[in-house]
């Protein structure tokens, strides 16, 4: 019987590891969840003269996707975003992070533009205020302009169906109060 | 085309791994020599295909083929060639391929150096290694294929993580993996012995050199990793109790215990069930480490992409391999008989105590590493366990090990004389206590009991090791004769234990007497730290192959003499847009001087961090000494003699062969 002890201890450990797999340790670190989105106002990628800022995010549920033309993972998530944009379920805004304007415009032209607008954050200052630590990241923002969720890494079909869309539907139900 | 060839080769390797495990294992069970004979050619073919696969990936990097996703994500055309090759294992997919490749390398080594093994044993060992290969290669093919393409191909790649663009990175992962994966050989020997019921001292003698070599690599890998973290991360620390570091340290502790336990099993035929269990644990912890790192269940500075499907796959793999082996152990262990007799105070029992302490240390690290996960899984909140826990638990467990390591070599097998030994060692004990206390009291801080204790233990260990070597040599007629007559194992042990003493000196002195300052320096200003003055001369621009750097220039004086010129950099890597701090270090046997640039301030001034770190090199020096000890031990002729019977056996009919073994 005592020879079974290592096996039993191991089985217990595996059970915990399996539960651990369903949890995400990274969900905690973002202190921005549940807080109003940090203030910003940036020129747009497409039209230098126009700005894009928090006002546009008010009064509707929206996604803010941090992207860059130099980011390979963005290329992977791009088809998912394009499809989401076609379905017109939720407006997607872009935050073009530490990029060059010509490269960013070329990228959008080559692969398609899923964004209503993209803000141009050349030096990455706004990204830092938003707590971005890698590209791509996607924020879900509610009607009050509060950050409700952050996806670190590419938005896959699975993430979209299981996390983002249910959350967006739920947030759509919330009343606008201001 | 090259990537597809690599992909195909990997699939072929998997097919070979299936052959390598199915036929030999079934053949050993059915006593069918023809089936067992599949093992060696299949293992070699598997390695051949793995070699093609990894070469193809390396070629994709060399040729800047950015249509391969993995290359596009981890390389750039501006990246120097040697980093493009190291980039093969710079991220998840490729490092798993390296893992599989190294397993193939060990498997081939077993086919080459195991000619003296009985046929069943050899077939089973290779069969079990084949099973592990199948798991890891399926994992790569199904969840982490490094040969995946992307269309259209990006014009240029995302560049390698700048943290990894360093000499240490090019060799740290291969060395560490050689150690991790090398433990699979001892594991497979243990499983084969459990399956065949041949758990004897021959099995222990076979396992020893393999375990030693794997342990040498693991020691080297961990030492390199620690050194790399010290100079590259720019925090001036050498160990952070990060989950990934723990994942490499736990197998090391258990492998160390295994080495000591194998000696007992080989020489005395004792602790068989325990030794087998340690062999299973050592590799299981390596696999667990892989799981922890790859699945993203824990947060770590080594944050690799976390992906639940990958995590689930490794967990199932872990469950099958480790669960299966522990179940086999539970079935077979009750039948294992130890036939050794020994008294309470004997080398056997002292080594058992060492084992218990080492395994307890590994278990407490495991607990600390998994604790945040346990609480989270039970819904009790998210916490993190940091260095305070580990130092509080680890130091008291290690202290008796250091004391014990000085005593055990002088205690004979079977039965020792406690009183006589105590009388002989009493002066060493008092002497080292006095020396440790005196040194600290005279030159350092008179109330610093931790350093006193640490230094005393180091003196004790070094003195008793040299004394035990001296007592062995004294038995011979002359010094030279005495030195020559000692076996490499004795020298190996002496080196390794002296390494532990050196390590201990490094740890206590650098922990307690390091000094650091963060100051604002304008060009021409100086800061003094201890006996040294650091003069800042200004910052210039430097252009690297894929980065721009601001390079500070410092002159360090001690009194009036100039000691060193240091040029720390702040690098901006263009592609990923990251800024990296490259510290500049003036290394020395007794102290390191360390300068890192912080942030630029107004008017050409910078925030600058300077460190003075006494004896920190001794930490890695200790690691290297331990490694050297392991290498010396492996060269022991006893292990090579084993290959000899095989030479005689060639041409002997199969029937005769099995009887002989």
Quaternary organisation: heterodimer
Task: Determine the structural class of chain B based on helices, strands and strand pairing.
Answer: alpha+beta
Principal-axes shape call of chain A:
elongated
* Average pLDDT, all residues of chain A: 84
How many helix segments of chain A? 5
What is the averaged pLDDT score of chain B? 87
What does the largest sheet of chain A look like?
5 strands, mixed
Low-confidence stretches of chain B: 300-305, 643-661
Greatest contact pair?
A-B, 31 and 46 residues
How many strand segments of chain A?
7
Radius of gyration of chain A: 19 Å
User: Strand count, sense and closure of the main sheet of chain B?
Assistant: 6 strands, antiparallel
How far from one another are the termini of chain A?
Answer: 66 Å
Blueprint of the fold:
The complex is a heterodimer of chains A (178) and B (661).
Chain A lengths: L4 H18 L18 E3 L7 E3 L8 E6 L4 H16 L4 E6 L3 H11 L6 E4 L3 H5 L7 E5 L5 E6 L4 H17 L5
Parallel strand pairs in A: 3-4, 4-5
Antiparallel strand pairs in A: 1-2, 3-6, 6-7
Chain B lengths: L1 H29 L2 H4 L2 H24 L6 H6 L6 H6 L5 H22 L5 H25 L23 H30 L4 H32 L10 H26 L3 H24 L12 H25 L14 H31 L9 H21 L10 H26 L5 H26 L4 H7 L2 H26 L1 E7 L4 E4 L2 E12 L3 E12 L2 E6 L2 E5 L4 E5 L1 E3 L4 E10 L5 E9 L2 H18 L2 H5 L2 H6 L4 H7 L1
Antiparallel strand pairs in B: 1-10, 2-3, 3-4, 4-5, 4-6, 6-7, 8-9, 9-10
Helix pairs in contact in B: 1-3, 1-7, 3-6, 6-7, 6-8, 7-8, 7-12, 8-9, 8-11, 9-10, 9-19, 10-11, 10-13, 11-12, 13-14, 14-16, 15-16, 16-18, 18-19
């Amino acid at each position: 019987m005592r020879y079974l002890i290592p096996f039993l201890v191991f089985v217990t450990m595996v059970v915990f590891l399996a539960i651990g797999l369903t949890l995400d340790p990274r969900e905690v670190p973002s202190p921005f969840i549940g807080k109003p989105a940090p203030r910003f106002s940036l020129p747009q990628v497409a039209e230098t003269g126009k700005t894009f800022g928090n006002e546009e995010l008010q009064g509707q549920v929206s996604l803010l996707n941090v992207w860059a033309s130099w980011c390979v993972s963005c290329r992977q998530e791009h088809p998912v975003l394009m499809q989401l944009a076609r379905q017109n379920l939720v407006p997607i805004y872009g935050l073009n992070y530490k990029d060059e304007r010509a490269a960013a415009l070329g990228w959008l032209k080559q692969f398609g533009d899923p964004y209503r607008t993209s803000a141009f954050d050349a030096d990455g200052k706004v990204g830092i205020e938003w707590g971005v630590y890698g590209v791509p990241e996607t924020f879900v923002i509610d009607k009050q302009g509060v950050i409700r969720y952050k996806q670190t890494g590419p938005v896959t079909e699975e993430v979209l169906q299981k996390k983002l869309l249910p959350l967006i539907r739920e947030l759509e139900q919330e009343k606008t109060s201001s | 085309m090259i990537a597809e060839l690599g992909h195909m080769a990997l699939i072929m390797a998997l097919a070979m791994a299936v052959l390598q495990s199915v036929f030999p294992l079934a053949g050993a069970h059915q006593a069918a020599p023809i089936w067992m004979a599949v093992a060696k050619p299949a293992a070699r073919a598997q390695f051949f295909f793995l070699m093609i696969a990894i070469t193809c990936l390396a070629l994709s990097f060399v040729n800047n083929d950015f249509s391969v996703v993995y290359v596009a994500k981890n390389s750039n055309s501006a990246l120097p060639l040697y980093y493009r090759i190291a980039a093969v294992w710079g991220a998840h997919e490729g490092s798993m391929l390296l893992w599989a490749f190294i397993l193939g390398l060990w498997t081939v080594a077993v086919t080459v150096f195991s000619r003296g093994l009985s046929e069943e044993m050899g077939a089973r060992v290779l069969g079990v290694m084949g099973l592990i290969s199948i798991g890891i290669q399926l994992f790569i093919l199904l969840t982490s294929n490094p040969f995946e393409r992307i269309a259209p191909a990006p014009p240029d790649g995302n560049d390698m993580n700048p943290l990894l663009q360093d000499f240490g990175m090019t060799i740290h992962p291969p060395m560490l993996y050689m150690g991790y994966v090398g433990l699979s050989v001892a594991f497979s020997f243990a499983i084969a012995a459990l399956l065949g019921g041949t758990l004897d001292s021959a099995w222990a003698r076979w396992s020893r050199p393999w375990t030693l070599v794997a342990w040498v690599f693991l020691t080297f890998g961990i030492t390199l990793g620690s050194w790399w973290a010290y100079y590259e991360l720019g925090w001036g620390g050498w160990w952070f109790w990060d989950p990934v570091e723990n994942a490499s340290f736990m197998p090391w502790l258990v492998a160390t215990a295994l080495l000591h336990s194998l000696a007992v099993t080989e020489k005395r035929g004792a602790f068989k069930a325990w030794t087998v269990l340690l062999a299973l644990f050592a590799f299981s912890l390596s696999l667990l480490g892989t799981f922890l790192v790859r699945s993203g269940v824990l947060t770590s500075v080594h944050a690799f992409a976390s992906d639940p499907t990958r995590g689930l796959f490794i967990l199932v793999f872990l469950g099958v391999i480790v669960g299966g082996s522990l179940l086999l152990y539970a079935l077979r262990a009750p039948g294992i008989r130890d036939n050794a007799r020994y008294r309470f105070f004997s080398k056997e029992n002292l080594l058992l105590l060492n084992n218990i302490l080492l395994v307890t240390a590994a278990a407490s690290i495991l607990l600390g590493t998994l604790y945040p996960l346990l609480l989270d899984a039970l819904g009790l909140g998210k916490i993190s366990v940091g260095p305070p826990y580990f130092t509080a638990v680890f130091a008291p467990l290690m202290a008796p090990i250091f004391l014990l390591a000085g005593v055990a070599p002088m205690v004979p097998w079977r039965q020792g004389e406690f009183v006589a030994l105590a009388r002989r060692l009493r002066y060493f004990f008092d002497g080292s206590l006095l020396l440790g206390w005196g040194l600290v009291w005279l030159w350092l801080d008179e109330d610093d009991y931790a350093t006193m204790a640490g230094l005393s233990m180091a003196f004790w260990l070094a003195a008793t090791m040299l004394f035990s070597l001296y007592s062995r040599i004294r038995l011979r007629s002359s010094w030279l004769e005495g030195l020559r007559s000692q076996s490499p194992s004795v020298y190996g042990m002496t080196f390794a234990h002296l390494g532990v003493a050196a390590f201990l000196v490094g740890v206590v002195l650098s922990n307690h007497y390091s000094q650091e300052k963060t100051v604002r320096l304008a060009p021409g200003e100086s800061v003094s730290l201890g006996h040294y003055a650091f003069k800042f001369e200004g910052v210039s621009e430097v252009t690297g192959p894929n980065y721009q750097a601001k390079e500070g220039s410092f002159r360090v004086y001690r009194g009036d003499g100039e000691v060193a010129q240091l040029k720390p950099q702040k690098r901006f890597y263009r592609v990923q847009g990251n800024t990296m701090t490259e510290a500049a270090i003036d290394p020395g046997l007794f102290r390191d001087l360390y300068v890192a640039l912080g942030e630029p301030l107004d008017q050409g001034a910078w925030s600058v961090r300077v460190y003075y770190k006494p004896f920190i090199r001794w930490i890695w020096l200790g690691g290297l000494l331990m490694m050297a000890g392991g290498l010396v031990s492996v060269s022991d002729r006893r292990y090579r003699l084993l290959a000899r019977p095989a030479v005689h056996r060639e041409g002997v009919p199969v029937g005769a062969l099995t009887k002989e073994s």
